[in-house]
Amino acid sequence: MPPRTLYKKLVDSHTVAVLDEQHVLLYADLHIMNEYTSPQAFSSLRAARRGVLRPRQQLAVVSHIIPTHPVSVAQRVILDPASALQASNLKRNCREFGIKLFDTNHEQQGIEHIIAPEHGWIRPGMVVLCGDSHTTTYGALGALGFGVGTSEVEHILATQTLVYRLAQDLRIRVDGVLPVGTSVKDLILLIIARIGAQGARGYAVEFAGSTIAALSAEARMTLCNMAVEAGARAALIRPDQTTYDYIREKAQDLGEQDFAQALGDWRQLYSDEGAVFAVEHVFAAQEVAPFVTWGTSPDQAIAVNALIPDPLLAGDAHAAAATAQALQYMGLSAGSAIAGLPINRVFIGSCTNGRIEDLRIAAAIVKGQQVAPAVRAMVVPGSGAVRRQAEQEGLAAIFIAAGFEWRQPGCSMCLAMNDDVLAPGERCASTTNRNFEGRQGRGGRTHLMSPAMAAAAALSGCISDVRTLEKQHV
Question: Who's near 25: CB < 8 A, 6+ residues apart?
Answer without folding.
Answer: 15, 16, 17, 19, 161, 162, 163, 164
